[in-house]
Amino acid sequence: MNASQVAGSRRRVVILGSTGSIGTSCLKVIDHLPDRLEALGLSAHARWEDLLKQTRQFQPRYVAATDAQAARALAQQDLPAGTRLLDGDDAIATMVCDPDVDVVLTAIVGTAGLTGTWLALEAGKTVAVANKETLVMAGPLVMELAQRKNARILPVDSEHSAIFQAMQSGAPREIQRIVLTASGGPFRGRKRADLANITPEQALKHPTWTMGRKITIDSATMMNKALEIIEARWLFNLKSEQIQVILHPESIIHSFVEFTDGSVLAQLSPPDMCLPIQYALTYPERVSGPARRLNWDELRSLNFQPPDLDTFPALALGFEVARRGGTCGAVLNAANEAAVAAFLEGALSFLDIPRVCREVLDQHHYSERPTLSELCALDRWSRQEVLRWITKMASSPSR
Ligand code: MG
Question: Which CATH architecture has domain 171-270+305-394?
Answer without folding.
Answer: Orthogonal Bundle (1.10)
